[in-house]
Design goal:
- The structure holds 2 protein chains of 2 kinds.
- In chain A, 5% of the residues lie in helices and 37% in strands.
- Chain A is built from 4 helices and 32 strands.
- The longest helix of chain A is centred in the N-terminal third of the chain and has 9 residues.
- Chain A is globular.
- The N and C termini of chain A lie far apart (51 Å).
- In chain B, strands 26-27-28-29-36-33-32-31 form an 8-stranded antiparallel β-sheet, with no helix packed on it.
- Chain B is 7% helix and 43% strand.
- The N and C termini of chain B lie far apart (80 Å).
- Chain B contains 4 helices and 36 strands.
- Classes of the chains: A mainly beta, B mainly beta.
- Chains A and B meet through β9 of A and α3, β20 and β26 of B.
- β9 of chain A pairs antiparallel with β26 of chain B.
Chain lengths: 502, 519
């Protein structure tokens, strides 16, 4: 028997299937109402276990039974229609109303006569501009712990802001008052909160963004794209307008699309020194590897019902139709951390997402306008933990001379303690006006030590050099767990904004 | 002798194929498509293709061998995304035989290459991740058909509105066309003439053949004395008329009749067989054939059906600014409200609106009403309320960079019949506007009517006026007729003409206005 097992193990790649993502996290695809294209743009929880979803076609649906283990129990009721793209939806437990973020307005919807359909559509806030350009999406949040709503406003096109506060993050206070909160937004894809209630958004690859990013919305900060900074005079609470990054990009005879002359010197890490309001992305969602079009941000607050990644963030992607996992830490007051692939294979481009208290992740979206790997034009799906724990990097923390890794399962001390089981590559992106960008300034550091902790659940890597501002791409191809299994995902991308001193 | 003949055929073939096929292909803005889904070339033909990225994402143009599953090929790059990224998302695949660079938004590149010698359908695609499913097309390599032989012309003089019977007329001049390509020489007659072209056309085998003609003015094509297709009358060469007929193998009599009244002169003819592509028989090429390219179709319409209750559509509606709220009422009467000017922006009858512009691709741009007889009562995004001591003054006009001072949008409520009441404030006044419809907007019987009720409470500024409509008015039986292509009848107690404005002195209380399509 043992012989046979050994034989099987040796032939594992041929005969026994390697662990798959689907062994640990299963995706359920729901049937959707026949009368519409349910292009889910936003999802929120209602107190009675129901969901409420806003769509790109401007409808709001109340969904019952999506939590049931039998997907055929799902049912839909149209709550409202005719809104201008619902890319944010929030339930307010205080007034029991629904708040829908649309192109130019947050609408407060009430069902006064109790027939299950909204009949009052109040303007809660419409104090930002809109020009008719397709790019000017408005992505809204649910309520934060202070009772505020957040909105991120896409620029007019990729470069400019031709309507008020396009390229900004705003907070809307409970009385409907708008507070300009962060500048520097380019093309937001989603807005969410971490376990502490801090707000984040995803931006998309383009000018000033070599890659999609997860960014921390610190009030008063400049998030990197200067196109919307013309509105500082309308936001006195924000203080003075930041100096422009790379002023040469806006001067002289250069036209859009011309090569930036000093491409190798244009860096977020150096511009941070010059522009005091500039906040670097917390995590680069490395272009083409993690995704191409980052969207919803979902925090696991289920207390273990979604598996071992409690309080971590899950970031959806429209183009790749996947979820990636982010672990964040705060170093020198700045958020940074690692992104690791998590689950691919959703049916369409993901846009909206929300986890319920039972650890069920509801996601949905459409491939419209940009295309998506999923292949379906739109979808509404559920992702659940099967109860089996995958062997994964659990956390990756920066240390003064390397990284500390924790794992979801005890590691095999031999492989995990061998520096040859790891490889690392460091790179960054140019911070410049041109669209997107290559991975530049590559450094291959030395991994000089890999020390396994006594409990077998963490490894301390010593790396030389660490490079401030670079993405540290770690491959763990040789690391095995105590059962000899390789990691389900063998790569992580850590954005090292700051190197800790201890 | 044989040697000479061979050389001649060879020269003729190369001459045709050696003519460079010139194409211009663009990525469409925000649609994840090329503007041309099909290109036609001859085997071995030189191609000059200008590829322009009109979108604001990066795109390339990659030509592959027949049968290549392009989406799978593009997707396969993800297996080693890092290497793919280094290659700028150009797959390392031997089936690729021509490609552009990865173009950034609004960049352009001219590709020159030689079309494959082997006939077939060669897919082209953007290999940037996620784009290949929709951004694709086909390059069809097919040999050209034979041209006309022994082509003669007969010129007739006359002033016709319809094709004359040329057999009963005497030619003014006759001759041979050495190029064997149909062309209208412009050196002697520019107006009021006709030409009959006759020649021989060889069908390489028995089977169906499709003929195409277009002309300015009339034309008619006959094969073996029988009419195949006709484009008679005085008209520009806008359409291409085409028809397929069966032909036996061998030589056939070709006859193309043409007449010119006045103005532009155009004449095009072409044919296509089962194993050769559209082959021009005329010297000129119709713009829609140029380079053998077919233009991409627009979206299929998504008309929003209004059945038992009003339907609301908030989006970019042409004529209603950027904060438009469309309402389609049962019975074919529709309006658009502006949540920017707090005013009725448009009224129309018939079908409500087509959502396809906004529900395809990325959803930008302004969509006009789908119905007809559209009235824009007071110009785009102008408010109804205004303080002035001269009500014939010009009302404020839309400054796209600003919101109107003193106005605040409050929202709308739906009643039991799902009819909307719009609410807003103006300085210290609260205003509610609601609408009811009467008659059938789908019938042009003059009874379709929209009634607007304006309730004003609170305090209004002095010299406040409410403008109902602008334009040229005349009083008619206690109503006002607004002149225009389609006249409207407007009725409201207290309304008065003040220059180009139809106004009511604004006071707290209720105003009622009806807008009616006049017969």
């Amino acid at each position: 028997m043992k012989r046979l097992f050994l034989f099987l193990a040796l032939c594992a790649p041929i005969f026994a299937a390697d662990p798959q993502e689907s062994d640990f996290y299963k995706i359920t695809t729901f049937e959707t109402p026949k009368e519409t294209a349910l292009e889910v743009g936003s999802i929120e929880l209602l107190p009675d276990g129901k969901l409420i979803m806003g769509t790109r076609r401007g409808e709001i649906w109340i969904v019952s039974g999506a939590g049931s283990s039998d997907a055929s129990n799902v049912s839909y009721k149209l709550f409202a229609s005719g809104l201008h793209e619902v890319l944010g939806i929030a339930y307010n437990p205080k007034d029991k109303n629904i708040y829908a973020t649309t192109r130019y307005e947050i609408t407060r919807l009430k069902d006064v006569d109790g027939d299950g359909r909204a009949d009052i559509f109040d303007n809660f806030c419409d104090q930002w501009g809109v020009s008719g350009d397709y790019h000017e999406y408005a992505i809204g949040s649910r309520f934060d712990k202070a009772g505020d709503l957040w909105v991120t406003l896409c620029l007019t096109g990729s470069f400019n802001s031709s309507a008020e506060f396009r390229g900004w993050a705003l907070r809307i206070k409970p009385d409907g008052k708008m507070v300009p909160t962060c500048s520097g937004i380019r093309s937001p894809g989603g807005l969410g909160f971490d376990a502490d209630g801090e707000a984040y958004y995803c931006d998309n690859q383009g000018p000033w963004h070599g890659s999609c990013t997860l960014q921390h919305l610190v009030p008063g900060s400049f998030q990197g794209h200067p196109g919307g900074n013309i509105w500082y005079d309308k936001a006195p609470n924000m203080g003075p307008r930041p100096i422009d990054p790379l002023p040469e990009a806006f001067q002289g005879d250069r036209k859009r699309g011309d090569k930036t002359p000093h491409v190798d010197t244009d860096r977020m890490v150096t511009e941070r020194e010059r522009i005091k309001q500039l906040l670097p992305p917390a995590v680069y969602l490395v272009h083409g590897k993690i995704g191409n079009s980052a969207s919803a941000i979902i925090c696991d607050l289920s207390g273990g019902k979604f598996g071992p990644f409690s309080k971590q963030l899950f970031v959806a992607d429209q183009s790749h139709s996947n979820l990636s996992r982010v672990f964040l830490e705060t170093i020198n007051g700045i958020k940074q951390g690692v992104v690791i692939p998590f689950r691919s294979g959703f049916a369409s481009g993901l846009i909206g997402g929300r986890m319920d208290e039972e650890g069920r992740v509801f996601v949905g979206g459409s491939d419209r306008g940009w295309g998506a790997r999923g292949g379906k034009p739109f979808c509404f799906e559920k992702c659940e933990w099967t109860g089996k724990t995958p062997f994964e990097v659990h956390e990756m923390r920066a240390k003064p001379d390397g990284f500390e890794l924790t794992f979801t399962q005890p590691v095999d001390t031999t492989t995990a303690g061998d520096v040859k089981s790891y490889s690392m590559r460091e790179f960054t992106y140019a911070y410049r006006e041109e669209y997107g960008g290559d991975e530049v300034s590559e450094i291959i550091p030395k991994i000089t030590a890999a020390k396994v902790a006594a409990d077998g659940k963490s490894v301390r890597l010593t790396i030389s050099p660490l490079t401030k501002g670079h993405i540290h791409e770690l491959h763990l191809d040789g690391v095995k767990n105590a059962e000899g299994q390789a990691l389900l995902h063998k790569v992580g991308y850590y954005t090292l904004n700051e190197i800790p001193t201890k | 002798m044989i040697r000479t003949l061979l050389a001649l055929i060879f020269a003729a073939t190369t001459l045709r194929a050696a003519e460079t096929a010139v194409f211009s292909l663009k990525t469409m803005t925000a649609q994840m498509k090329y503007d041309i889904p099909e290109l036609l070339v001859q085997p071995g033909q030189p191609v000059q293709l200008t590829f322009e990225n009109g979108d604001d994402l990066p795109h390339n143009l990659v030509f592959c061998q027949p049968g290549t599953e392009t989406a799978a090929m593009a997707m396969k790059q993800m297996e080693n995304a890092e290497a793919a990224l280094k290659r700028n998302w150009l797959p390392d695949d031997p089936r690729i035989w021509a490609h552009s660079k990865m173009l950034n938004p609004h960049e352009k590149e001219t590709l020159t290459f030689t079309a494959p010698e082997k006939t077939g359908t060669y897919p082209y695609v953007c290999t940037f991740p996620g784009h290949a499913l929709t951004m694709r097309g086909e390059l069809k390599v097919m040999k050209a058909g034979e041209g006309l032989k022994d082509l003669h012309f007969a010129l007739y003089l006359g002033n016709w509105k319809q094709m004359p019977d040329f057999s009963k007329l005497k030619p003014h001049r006759e001759g041979k066309v050495d190029s064997n390509l149909i062309e209208v020489k412009l050196d002697d007659y520019k107006n009021e003439f006709g030409v009959v072209f006759t020649g021989k056309l060889n069908a390489p085998k028995k089977g169906p053949y499709r003929f195409f003609i277009s002309s300015d003015d009339g034309s008619r094509l006959l094969i073996d004395g029988k009419e195949v297709v006709s484009y008679d009358g005085i008209h520009p060469a806008g359409d291409i008329k085409e028809k397929s007929i069966p032909l036996e193998q061998g030589e056939h009599e070709f006859r193309l009749e043409y007449f010119q009244g006045g103005g532009n002169i155009d004449l095009y003819a072409a044919w296509k067989g089962s194993d050769f592509q559209i082959t021009p028989l005329s010297k000129w090429l119709h713009p829609n054939w140029k380079g053998g390219a077919k233009k991409q179709k627009e979206f299929d319409p998504i008309p929003l059906a209004v059945t038992t209750e009003p339907v609301i559509y908030r989006n970019f509606i042409q004529g209603a600014g950027n904060r438009g709220i469309g309402v389609g009422y049962p019975g074919g009467i529709n309006l658009a409200w502006s949540a920017e000017s707090m005013n009725l922006a448009l009224i129309w009858r018939g079908a409500f609106i087509d959502a396809s512009k906004h529900w395809n691709s990325r959803g930008g741009g302004h969509q006009p009403p789908l119905g007809y007889d559209v009235l824009q009562p007071t110009g785009e995004v102008t408010p109804a309320f205004f303080v002035t001591d001269k009500p014939d003054a010009a009302w404020p006009t839309w400054d796209k960079t600003k919101r109107y001072d003193g106005f605040a949008w409050k929202g709308y409520a739906l009643d039991a019949k799902r009819s909307s009441t719009f609410r807003y404030s103006w300085h210290d006044a609260e205003i509610e506007e609601s609408f009811t419809v009467e008659g059938n907007g789908n019938k042009p019987d003059g009874n379709a009517k929209l009634s607007r009720t304006v309730k004003v409470s609170g305090k209004l500024p002095a010299n406040a006026w409410y403008r109902i409509a602008s334009g040229q008015f005349e009083s008619k039986d206690g109503s006002f007729l607004i002149k225009g292509v389609k006249p409207f009848l407007i009725t409201s107690a207290g309304a008065q003409i003040a220059g180009a404005n139809l106004v009511i002195p604004a006071t707290p209380g209720t105003m009622t206005i009806t807008y009616q399509w006049a017969q």
